[in-house]
Amino acid sequence: MSTAAATADAAKQPLVFYVTGASKGIGKVLVQKIIAQGDKVAATSRDKKQLTDIFGQDSEQFLSLAVELATEESVKQSIQDTVKHFGTIDVIINNAGYAATGVIETIADRHIRDNFDINVFGVFNVLRYGVPILRNKKSGLIINISSVGGTIGFQGFGAYCATKFAVNGLTETLAAELKSSNVKVTSVEPGYFRTDFIGNAKENPEEAGAPIEEYKPIYDFIHHHNVGIHGKQRGDPSKLADILVGLARHQGDLPTHLYVGADSNEYALAKLKQQVADLEKWQSITSKTDFDE
Ligand SMILES: NC(=O)c1ccc[n+]([C@@H]2O[C@H](COP(=O)([O-])OP(=O)(O)OC[C@H]3O[C@@H](n4cnc5c(N)ncnc54)[C@H](OP(=O)(O)O)[C@@H]3O)[C@@H](O)[C@H]2O)c1
To answer: Does the UniProt entry include the keyword Oxidoreductase (predicted)?
Structure first.
């Protein structure tokens, strides 16, 4: 068989996806597309019934998994169950996530830690048991769903942005660590997409104490975000899911950061340009700190 024919043959083989947070939003439409194009998918949720209500019973193409992402044993079991059901995993998509809101001065420690448990430590748990499968066969793709809030800190969303900056940091590191193993790793950073994500954002005013006058514009921003923007986001999750499934069969390298959505591209470009400009402006001072040897 020629190399071209072998590549075409491989491109037709069904891929096995493992997708977290699949009962709603981006994860749900993504799993629907994976099944529709003939690939296979293990889908996780806190509530297995939600998955079976949407996608039906387990089959040759589909496996529903009840998983507590913050619990290492639960994640480990789900990866083992996926391999038992499908024989392998080709694409891992760490999608589950939510936003705790509130200003940094007053957001409760518990809400920050809970947000990190799902958005960051849940991702580490999946990678701890998922990476060896891809690394050992020297192929595959890992997509971590971050956010443009992983490149820019937005007021009122400090805890969430901190989790997504962490996701970007671990993704860059993993991409470097797996380069020689031929496993692709990318961080997808969406802007606003019309899901229940904003509706599911956790606002915790009851624990924030008395409102602080100086922060009123930020409280208003959070409120406007949760009420005014919800349902009017410009991004179509179906188009985002098309990009994600396309990445799985993309030939060649992928960028470590992929900004998705016109808003995400626009915000990120402005931020990155400003960051380069700041670096260059200060470089004559900040780059002269080596020992005089
Ligand atoms: N929509 C946007 O505008 C937007 C923008 C930037 C980034 N993102 C990111 O995209 C990803 C998907 O968000 P989405 O828009 O699809 O939101 P969504 O509609 O609220 O769905 C979020 C999914 O994450 C899981 N999840 C939420 N809170 C969880 C928790 N406490 N423990 C475990 N799982 C939890 C849910 O899984 P269950 O099945 O267990 O309920 C759910 O299926 C998230 O990582 C989010 O940060 C979204």
So the answer is: yes
Residue 292 neighbours by CB under 8 Å, 6+ apart: none
What pLDDT sits at residue 228? 86
Closest among 224, 215, 169 to 192, alpha carbons compared: 224
E strand or H helix at 202? strand 202-203
What residue owns the CA closest to ligand 1's atom 44?
A: 97
Catalytic residue among 78, 146, 187, 264: 146
CATH class of 13-283: alpha beta
- Region for residue 236 given its phi and psi (left: phi exceeds 0; alpha: psi -120 to 50; beta: otherwise): beta
In angstroms, rounded to a whole number, what is the distance separating the alpha carbons of residues 67 and 85? Answer: 16
CA-based R_g, the chain, Å:
20
pLDDT in tens, 101-131: 999 999 999 999 999 999 999 999 999 999 9
15 near 89, Cβ under 8 Å? no
The residues, any chain, with a CB within 8 Å of residue 82's CB and separated by 6 or more, are 16, 18, 42, 63, 65, 89
- The full set of domain ranges for the chain reads 13-283
- Tokens describing residue 285: 């001072």
What is the C-alpha to C-alpha distance for residues 278 and 293, in angstroms, rounded to an integer?
28
CB atoms within 10 A of CB 240: 21
Residue list, ligand 1 pocket, CB within 6 Å: 21-27, 45-46, 50, 69, 95-98, 118, 145, 147, 190, 192-193, 195-197, 200, 233
Query: Helices (DSSP H) in the chain: which residue ranges?
Result: 3-12, 25-36, 48-55, 72-86, 109-116, 122-137, 158-178, 216-223, 237-248, 262-286
